[in-house]
Specification:
single chain; 347 residues; Isopropylmalate Dehydrogenase; 2 domains; ten-stranded mixed beta sheet; two-stranded antiparallel sheet; 20% strand; globular
């Protein structure tokens, strides 16, 4: 029995994660070795508006008993983003030491890239997920006065850098053997040179992997101009976040892209989600793209030791898109349910 905690969240989150659960149930029916049990939790911004917090005080303790976590999306206009993020997703990532944020991007069959000649895009961004620029260290002084100032510190540790960079090199060893480190050491004079030093130290231990450092702004441009040349990109929390949005856009639409928040050692549950937001403007209309959530479900099965079953899901999703069954963001007219139903039928 694989126990999965489901947090639909806000906006289109419950719609797409509901689609993902339909797919996972369908594929499990054809795999006698896969027994899935879903438990849903109504946490998110609506919960916050009623209870004053995004999840219960013992939320982390509750989630710790599950094998994996499946999230739709979080965020709503009446709740500040820093509240919704820092009271739900970031506590989950940090308490469960999900230090790898893995974001694969490729052009699925049936989807057109906005680029004229993207080549064979297949790039994975490995983003540090627990420290870096997204630390909670800092504060504000003299609020509401002309002297007001805000300071937020970036926190880079050798432990944190070594493990995410090593993960990227190990991953590249199973792929095409190339790693690019995203840096900005020409402008950020302390943390980024530290990143560069650790990257070079780790690269020396992997002579079979081609390694290079590239300034993040130039890297973003190169991802657009020559995406085919990339294999694995590793970056800090902020730079990895931004660059993975670029790779998602190059692949055709943000609604396609999945994300895995991994605790690779398996000491804690990992979390899987699409990278898109809660999209309040289309919530409840039945037109949200379920592809990102469906692919995230496939990543979850891969992590749980069922890679062939996960690949079956991606294959069925690609065949569905190739047939022309697409939501509006991909130039189609199908609803969320119609796309989901066709994927189920193909499975």
């Amino acid at each position: 029995m694989v126990r999965i905690a489901v947090i639909g969240g806000d906006g289109i989150g419950p719609e797409v994660v509901g689609a993902g659960m339909r797919i996972l149930r369908a594929v499990a029916d054809g795999d006698p070795g896969l027994d899935l049990e879903f438990t849903e939790f109504p946490w998110g911004c609506e919960y916050y508006l009623e209870h004053g917090r995004m999840m219960p005080e013992d939320g982390i303790e509750i989630l710790s008993g599950f094998d994996a976590l499946y999230l739709g999306a979080v965020g709503w206009p009446t709740v500040p983003d820093h509240v919704s993020l820092w009271q739900l997703l970031i506590p989950i990532r940090r308490n469960f030491d999900q230090y790898v944020n893995l974001r694969p991007a490729r052009i699925l069959r049936g989807v057109e890239s906005p680029l004229r000649n993207p080549g064979e895009l297949d790039v994975t961004v490995a983003r540090e997920n627990t420290e870096g620029e997204y630390s909670d260290s800092g504060g504000r002084l003299f609020a509401g006065t002309p002297r007001e100032l805000a300071i937020q510190d970036s926190v880079f540790t050798r432990h944190g850098l070594e493990r995410i960079i090593r993960y990227a090199f190990d991953l590249a060893g199973t792929r095409r053997g190339r790693v690019v480190g995203a840096t900005k050491s020409n402008g950020i004079s302390i943390t980024m040179p530290f990143f560069d030093e650790v990257f070079r130290e780790i690269s020396d231990q992997y002579p079979g992997v081609e390694a290079s450092l590239m300034h993040a702004d130039a890297l973003a441009a190169r991802l657009v101009l020559d995406p085919e040349s990339f294999d694995v990109v590793v970056g800090s929390n902020l730079l990895g976040d931004i660059l993975s949005e670029v790779t998602a856009a190059v692949s055709g639409a943000i609604g396609i892209a999945p994300s895995a928040n991994l605790n690779p050692e398996g000491d804690h549950p990992s979390l899987f989600e699409p990278i898109h937001g809660s999209a309040p403007d289309i919530a409840g209309k039945g037109v949200a793209n379920p592809a990102g959530a469906i692919w995230a479900g496939a990543l979850m099965l891969d992590h749980l030791g069922h890679p062939e079953t996960g690949e079956r899901i991606v294959e069925a999703l690609e065949a569905t898109l190739e047939s022309g069954s697409k939501t509006g963001d991909l130039g189609g007219s199908a609803t969320t349910d119609e796309v989901t139903e066709e994927v189920v039928e193909r499975l």
